[in-house]
């Protein structure tokens, strides 16, 4: 592909113009750059030429105006418009384009800018036809990226990364190494940290894609539909159970958990349990993707909790309200001045040796184990009023088991903190 | 309403697809109403109900699958957990142990399992429950099954039943 183009270019009698019009100087049509790179959306309606015989316009106009932010990495030619050129351009017969061989980035020069204030037209004849009989585009490309720069500074060829580079071995840019995950030549051989980063993100992306593919197939056993084939985006989410691994739609499982219990249904044994395995889960986590390992699940849960922790709890209301979830609330409990709520043991009432403390359910269960362990004569009555779980610890202590009781309380306090 | 309809439609398609998979259950949806279903189930083998075909009527609530369907026997059946007159079934999964993961098909399977293993301690048909207990307490398994079959088929004389019940009280 490269060679015929080169030959055509070398034999081309048409000028390379700096003009941004479909016709170059002298009425010749300019090769469409999109066409040259492989695809032009306009097809035959394009005002630029789709004929390989026509010369391309490869001159960076930004550079000519003074500043090109791409500098030495610009894919267009950095050709300096010289004074002779601008004067010669009016006659367009004297080909005297000077190619800056040494300077790649040139700061804006005022006198050049003033030269540009006049309509600027490039010379009609390419400079290489004067200097040498045969045009070698690589020579020209070397202007953009001299071979003598450090390999790490040379940019990677975007065409090779996207699939194939028309210039093949003669490409002035570096053709990257093959990335095993995405199958593209986009690993820079001389920038290890960059390619490593690419590998990492690529691997992650690939994994995500695989998971998504796997997730597509998963059905919710409440609606018997595929979770990710639901009509609205809000519904296309999984509800992860905290204690087991059965998949549901977030809307289905939330509906089930919040449905009013029919007679005889117990909140904990039926509604909060997994519909499939009946394992009790205290909360469900929304996720757009299903997980394949426990670590991934953990990550999803942690991300979700971290997100909620950054949102102010509407029940707590900066200290004005009272959150029924207490210390086990997922949302942020902070006062207006940014101070976080202090975790304290809350004594709800103490009447004749009964101490009632508000706990999260998990801690209550733990505590019950502890008390069994210490074999103190503590009796824990768990009773549940809608959602805060109020644990009433009734301790009838005789003087002998006082130490055991103290240990139990130490445990309780450590749980709270 | 919309969700229950969608879900029932899914179940309908599933039933059509897996017709051959479970020959003991034949689940049919009412032509005009997707909330009304009937099922024909075969009596489980090695039970007195073997060889019999029983018709069930399903009435599905609009909150389905958050609420269980109402199921009753249309065929008269002598079973400790089925009301003899109304055909009402006492089965935990149709009441407090319902879960939305159950389908009409799996409910049918549960009912077949209930026919094979009656739960005489929570009877809807007290006579049947008492008799069942009496027979299985007093006799060895194989003998009891035969006797139980006679009971169900109405072959056992009344006096014999009374005797059996007396026996169980002594036990």
UniProtKB/TrEMBL annotation, chain A:
Boundaries of every RING-type domain copy: 220-278
Coiled-coil spans in chain: none
Phylogenetic lineage: Eukaryota, Viridiplantae, Streptophyta, Embryophyta, Tracheophyta
Residue ranges annotated for the C3H1-type domain, each copy included: 26-53, 54-81, 151-178, 307-336
Keywords in alphabetical order: Metal-binding, Repeat, Transferase, Zinc, Zinc-finger
Gene3D superfamilies hit by this protein: Zinc finger, CCCH-type, Zinc/RING finger domain, C3HC4 (zinc finger)
Annotated zinc fingers (C3H1-type), start-end: 26-53, 54-81, 151-178, 307-336
Record InterPro entries: MKRN-like, Znf-CCCH_4, Znf_C3HC4_RING-type, Znf_CCCH, Znf_CCCH_sf, Znf_RING, Znf_RING/FYVE/PHD, Znf_RING_CS
An MF annotation (GO) of this entry: ubiquitin protein ligase activity
Protein name per Swiss-Prot or TrEMBL: RING-type E3 ubiquitin transferase
Pfam families reported in the protein's UniProt record: zf-C3HC4 (PF00097), zf-CCCH_2 (PF14608), zf-CCCH_4 (PF18044)
Biological process terms in GO annotation: protein polyubiquitination
Automatic annotation (TrEMBL), chain B:
CDD domains in UniProt: UBCc_ScPEX4-like
Keyword Flavoprotein: no
EC class: transferase
InterPro entries: Ub_conjugating_enzyme, UBC, UBQ-conjugating_AS, UBQ-conjugating_enzyme/RWD
GO molecular function, a single term: ligase activity
UniProt-annotated catalytic positions: 90 (glycyl thioester intermediate)
GO biological process, one term: peroxisome organization
Xref: Gene3D superfamilies: Ubiquitin Conjugating Enzyme
Domain UBC core residues, every copy: 3-157
Enzyme Commission no: 2.3.2.23
Protein keywords: ATP-binding, Ligase, Nucleotide-binding, Peroxisome biogenesis, Transferase, Ubl conjugation pathway
Membership in a protein family: Belongs to the ubiquitin-conjugating enzyme family.
PANTHER family: UBIQUITIN-CONJUGATING ENZYME E2
Entry protein name: E2 ubiquitin-conjugating enzyme
């Amino acid at each position: 592909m490269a060679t015929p183009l080169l030959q055509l270019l070398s034999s081309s009698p048409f000028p390379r113009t700096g003009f941004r019009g479909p016709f170059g100087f002298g009425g010749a049509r300019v090769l469409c750059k999109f066409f040259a790179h492989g695809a032009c959306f306009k097809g035959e309606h394009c005002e630029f030429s789709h004929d390989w015989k026509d010369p391309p316009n490869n001159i960076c106009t930004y550079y000519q105006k003074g500043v090109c932010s791409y500098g030495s990495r610009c894919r267009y030619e950095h050709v300096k418009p010289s004074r002779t050129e601008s004067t010669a351009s009016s006659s367009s017969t004297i080909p005297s384009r000077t190619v800056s061989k040494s300077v790649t980035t040139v700061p804006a020069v005022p006198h050049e800018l003033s030269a540009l204030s006049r309509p600027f037209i490039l010379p009609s004849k390419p400079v290489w036809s004067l200097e040498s009989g045969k045009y070698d585009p690589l020579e020209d490309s070397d202007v953009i990226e001299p071979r003598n720069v450090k390999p790490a500074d040379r940019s990677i060829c975007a065409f090779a990364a996207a699939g194939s580079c028309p210039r093949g071995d003669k490409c002035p840019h570096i053709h990257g190494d093959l990335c095993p995950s995405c199958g593209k030549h986009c690993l820079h051989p001389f920038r290890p940290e960059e390619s490593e980063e690419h590998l990492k993100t690529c691997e992650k992306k690939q994994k995500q894609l695989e998971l998504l593919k796997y997730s597509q197939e998963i059905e919710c056993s409440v609606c018997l539909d595929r979770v990710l084939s639901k009509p609205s985006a809000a519904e296309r989410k999984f509800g992860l159970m905290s204690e087991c691994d059965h998949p549901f739609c977030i809307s289905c499982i939330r509906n089930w958990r919040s449905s009013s219990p029919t007679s005889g249904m117990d909140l904990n044994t039926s509604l909060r349990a997994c519909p499939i395995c009946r394992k009790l889960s205290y909360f469900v986590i929304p996720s757009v993707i299903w997980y394949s390992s426990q670590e991934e699940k953990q990550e999803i849960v942690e991300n979700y909790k971290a997100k909620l922790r950054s949102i102010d709890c509407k029940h707590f209301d900066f200290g004005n309200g009272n959150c029924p979830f207490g210390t086990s609330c997922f949302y942020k409990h902070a006062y207006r001045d940014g101070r976080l709520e202090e975790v304290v043991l809350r004594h709800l009432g103490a009447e004749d040796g009964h101490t009632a403390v508000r706990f999260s359910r998990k801690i209550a269960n733990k505590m019950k184990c502890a008390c069994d362990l210490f074999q103190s004569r503590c009796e824990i009555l768990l009773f549940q009023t809608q959602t805060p779980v109020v644990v009433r610890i009734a301790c009838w202590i005789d003087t002998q088991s006082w130490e055991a009781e103290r240990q139990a309380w130490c445990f309780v306090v450590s749980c709270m903190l | 309403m919309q969700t229950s309809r969608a879900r029932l439609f899914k179940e309908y398609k599933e039933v059509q697809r897996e017709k051959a998979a479970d020959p003991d259950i034949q689940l049919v949806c009412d032509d005009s109403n997707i909330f009304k279903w009937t099922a024909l189930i075969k009596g489980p083998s090695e039970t007195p109900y073997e060889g019999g075909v029983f018709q069930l009527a399903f009435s599905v609530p609009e909150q389905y699958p958050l609420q269980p369907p109402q199921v009753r026997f249309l065929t008269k059946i002598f079973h400790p957990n089925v009301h003899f007159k109304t055909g009402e079934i006492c089965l935990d999964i149709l009441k407090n142990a319902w879960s939305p993961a159950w389908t009409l098909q799996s409910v049918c399977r549960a009912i077949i399992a209930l026919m094979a293993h009656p739960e005489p301690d929570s009877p809807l048909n007290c006579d049947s429950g008492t008799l069942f207990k009496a027979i299985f307490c007093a006799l060895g398994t194989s003998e009891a099954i035969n006797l139980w079959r006679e009971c169900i088929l109405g072959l056992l004389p009344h006096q014999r039943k009374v005797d059996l019940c007396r026996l169980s009280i002594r036990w």
